[in-house]
Amino acid sequence: MKNDQSSNVWGDANQAALALRQLSVQDWARFGVQEIAYIRPVVVNGVQAMSIHAADGTPIGAAPTAELAIAAIEQHELAAVRVH
Fold first, then answer.
1. What is the C-alpha separation between 30 and 18, in angstroms, rounded?
2. What is the pTM of this model?
3. What is the sign, positive or negative, of the torsion defined by CA atoms of 20, 21, 26, 29?
4. From 7, 11, 39, 74, which residue has the greatest number of CB atoms within 10 Å?
5. Beta 47-54 vs 59-63: how paired, if at all?
6. pLDDT at residue 31 in the model
């Protein structure tokens, strides 16, 4: 029974992730521009870094690592999400 419940939870999570990937920029902006930030890898002055963006795509910062980017997001009371 436990395995069936675990499978169902992962199935629900996968469906939610798929739905989030299909949101347009406008949908993200309405969904939580003031509450959600995402990170993605970038190169700044030849150095790997993580850029931090508001839900609508507006750049709001950068950090040298994903861990520091997430910490900065959480320090500003935003929810951090990683976009692939």
1. 18
2. 0.60
3. positive
4. 39
5. antiparallel
6. 65
